[in-house]
Every structure is written in structure tokens, then in C-alpha cells.
Fold this protein.
Amino acid sequence: MVSLLGSRDELLKLVESAFEVGILVRGNEITVTGPEEETRKVIHLFSELVRLLDLGQGLDEANVASAIAMVQDTEHPNPSEVLSDAALTHRGRVIRPKTAGQKRYLDAIRQNTVVFAIGPAGTGKTYLAMAMAVLALRRKEISRIILTRPAVEAGERLGFLPGTLFEKIDPYLRPLFDALHDMMDAEQLTLLMERGTIEVAPLAYMRGRTLNDSFIVLDEAQNTTAEQMKMFLTRLGFGSKAVVTGDITQVDLPAGRHSGLRVVREILRDIDGVAFIELTGRDVVRHRIVQEIVEAYGRYDESQGPS
């Protein structure tokens, strides 16, 4: 009961604040009173939390809040299936989906050759894709990982930055390196990069290549042009898988250039083996205030209408 409700009943209070019910705990019994629909949801929630404990997963405020959100929105009938899924384990730390949207995303990567993940910052688009790439490499399902993103944000200013070309583009690839360091030891990462098993490069380096037996992640894809998107997708070789991530509300292309991520949905939506996953503010797993900021901007954009 301590594991279920929290050492100071903090998890119980979290449930009580989310539903219009009364919850009475006596020994090992929990009594829920209130409107039938609300009590049904709370009973289902507690059964799902118990199942998570049975599966050996501890409960904290973050995953209980995620389970509450799924039960309230009926996004997923069984939050325990979402929160017990594992993308990757490193040094005892398990990278898991935290929302129903993220669970759909992982399942889409497992079942498709090309997956597009479109959504705001903080929804785990790139991080989960990279975790699945590292897992595929560990299982020897692929022979190399290629991580790429356009350096469009720099525009013409790239030439004014000091250093070599790699030093100039490093700030735009740094988020990918940071994620990799979370998923493997530094020595192993260095060795794999020296061997070319893991490659992190700007999108321009993909031209003219055929990528076989690879897991390719294209990040910040909203900053690709339609031509660049076609170029990237046609690099895919035998035994390969590609994940394309981006936020179509954060396009940094020069005025008059259309985002390849915006048009690709219309072009590829009917192709078998290609999946599009839409993540929203409900899938933001950073600090609570980040989710509220994303949702507030979404409401503002809707109120302004098309530009």
C-alpha cells in the first residue's frame, strides 16, 4: 500500500485531486465513493497501478500523473501497457514511453520502415527514435546508425563562424550527441563513431549515398525543403529503417521556401510501410510548465487563424 499510495500519501492525494470522488483507505482496502463514471475510472486506475507494481515498476508522481491523464482522456484503455513498455535500458535506467502517443510512436517504429513523428518540443520524438536505433544496433538488426539534421538555422551566418566545417556545424548536431551519451558509455560511443558504426552528420552529407542495413534518424525535418526531403527518403537501402522527426510550427527556412515535412504527408500518406504519428501538448514529458506553454501557444496560433 505504501508503494501504491506513496510514503506520505502523495500519490493518493494526486489521484484525489484529479477526480471528483472520495477515497477512504483502511488497511489493505480502498473505498471509492462518488459519481459512477468517476468511481469507475478511479477503480480502473488503481487496478492499472497495481499491475505496474506487479510488473516490478515503481510508482512516482510522474508515471501516476501519466496514468491519470490516460484514464481521464480514455487515450489508452490500459495505462500499464504504455508505462511498462521499454525502448532501451542503460546502466539500470529504462527509457520508456510516458504517454499513449509515445507508445503509438514506438509501436509504429517497430512495425514500419519509415515513420514520421510530428509534434512540439518535449514530446520525445528524437530521443525515443535514437533509443530504438541503439536497441536495433545492440540486437544486430542493423549494422550502423546514422543521425542527421539540416543546419538551416545557421543560414548564411555559417560562413562567419570560426573553425573548421565540423566545428561550425557542431552546435546544430550537439543535441544528438547529448542524447547518445545518455544511452551508451562514452568510451563505447567514441569507438563506434571512429569505426563509422555511428555517424552524426549534416543532411547535406547524405546526398548521393545508398544506406543499407542502417537505422537513420532525420531530426528537425521541418527545416528541410521538399527537394531535400525527397533526397533523404531516397537514400534508404535494403534492411534499413528511417525515422523523421520535426515540429511544423517551428520552421526556420527562409521566406518563400516550403517545408518538406509539411508536404510529405500529402505525398506519402497512402504508402504501406510509411506511418505518420502526430504528437501533441499532452505528450510533452518535460517540466509541467513546458506542456502548459506548448498548449498556450497552440491556442494562440488557432486564435490568429492562417497567416
